[in-house]
Amino acid sequence: MEKRKGFGIYWIYLAIAIFFIVISFWTPGGSSKEVPYSKLVKAVRSGCVKNVEIDISNRTAKAELDPECAKTYTGHQSADGNPVNITTTIPAVDEFSKFLSEMKEEGNFTGEESYKESHDYWNVFLFSVLPFAILILFFVYMNRRMTGNGGGGGGIFNVGKSNAKIFDKSKAEHKVTFADVAGLEGAKQEVEEIVHFLKNPKKYTALGGKIPKGALLVGPPGTGKTLLAKAVAGEADVPFFSMSGSDFVEMFVGVGASRVRDLFHQAKEKAPCIVFIDEIDAIGRARGKNASFNSNDERENTLNQLLTEMDGFGSNSGVIILAATNRAEILDKALMRAGRFDRQIHVELPDLNERKAIFNVHLKPIKIDSSVDVDFLARQTPGFSGADIANVCNESALIAARKEKTSVTKQDFLDAVDRIIGGLEKKTKIITAEEKKNIAYHEAGHATISWHLQYADPLVKVTIVPRGQALGAAWYLPEERQLTSQQYILDKICSLLGGRAAEEIFFGILDTGALSDLEQATRRAYALVTYFGMSDKLKNISFYDSTGQNEYGFTKPYSEATAQMIDDEVKRIINEQYERAKDILIQYKEGHNRIAQILIDKEVLFAEDLENVFGKRPWASRAEELLDDASNSLVTDSEPKSLTQAPDEPQDNN
Question: Lower CB density within 10 Å: C or N end of the chain?
Fold first, then answer.
């Protein structure tokens, strides 16, 4: 059955157009015939007019003609012998009255002369009332459109009203609870306590304590800050207001502050309650920075009103503010202080056990087979956020469906990690034999260097199949550590420079393929000198501002002489590690060439291939043990079948 089209606004436009067309061709007035004024004068002189009715308001005259004269002045003969009415517009009422008086004296006009003052309600409605009615209807329609598109709770008249969404626990179809939040045990514990505050406040206030006024969720993107807020909404038995920081920002002056006032007014009426502001950095940026003519004063006014409402002169009892941001360093100090946000809950990237719990949550709706090992998947995804893990699970299901499988296998998960990190394989990309050889020797340089450095991350896989913008990439399995040593950073820089060193040693020419490597190496070298204080000439000095609140950042926090010293130290570190990489490649030249040839032939290289060439690494670590488990599950084939670990960054950009 064909679906009928709805009644749209264009049908209203069409009806109005037809209405105006009809009234333009239709004029009320009965059977009266419109004639020129000169014919009416002739008719009166000839004695054919019986009666005349003069309309003073419209300056019109309606005359009743004798049936015998009708054809002369109207062109039509009266069929039934009745008088015929004619109408005309007169120049002036006084002159026409004087003319009729003269005709009466001469005996040409013997009929009755009458006067009236008419009220044309039709014209009044058509030209006075109808245009205003159309404008009002159009205004109401546009107001409703603005309301539907987020223009405020009541349209343009209520643009200053808060459009916060109130979460109704009883009507929620897909309610999120704390059971749906895997990992994040520390953050979840603090958020659960806020719910307990509201459910049983006497337990805490009986000892003289006060319920916290606010909690700020801070962490990288994708770690589950908004998910925690949804869980609070699902668990709490109190009203839950939800807004985004950008909902306060508007082009109209004073709207943001007005919406803040209205939000807290609604919250106080429903107290105790929770107000959640997502991405609060949209209105919470530090005030007075980068002041210029382009600064947005409206944003600062909104922040000032928010500060006053959260902890001002008035009481705000029973309203708990929950906010989330991944840019806490740019927030205003007044917003971060105790009394407004009493707690800062850090939501960090999940560790190994937390990733395992997150995988268990996202694998529930997916049909997996017996080859999928959750422990293995958790080990292969260090540095992944909860959103990344959810994307891996979804992408693996799409890959399995694309291959016409009935369940998702372990290989599908590995291919999903491949695609998410490195991008889609571009086997159709045209690469010459010379370029392929250069890429193979470049990637073999990375593999050789990392295999022979004690603190370098264990290599899992090297491929020269183009993925995304990279022509080749190497994947490592870093050990999850909280502290990074100086030697680890130096070994990492050395392994990054291994590709460029291989090009110089074996080809004697350089190309642009090492762009990403040089960028990473330089950035790490500058961090070593300026942030971590690990250089020889600038020991124990750090120019890093972890707060991001440097109010006097107009100039560098060091002199030009120190800047020159920093540059010299960075150059020294880069040059030393580059020479070190060249020495290692020269020492293991034969093995490097064998690895490069394997890459040319198979386009992929795994850790066990390196072990066959160089032997087992002499430095055993927990990461090495995990690598052994990963290597046992990989398939060495002429095609790159798997991707077991995310690279720090793809080693080639061109």
Answer: N
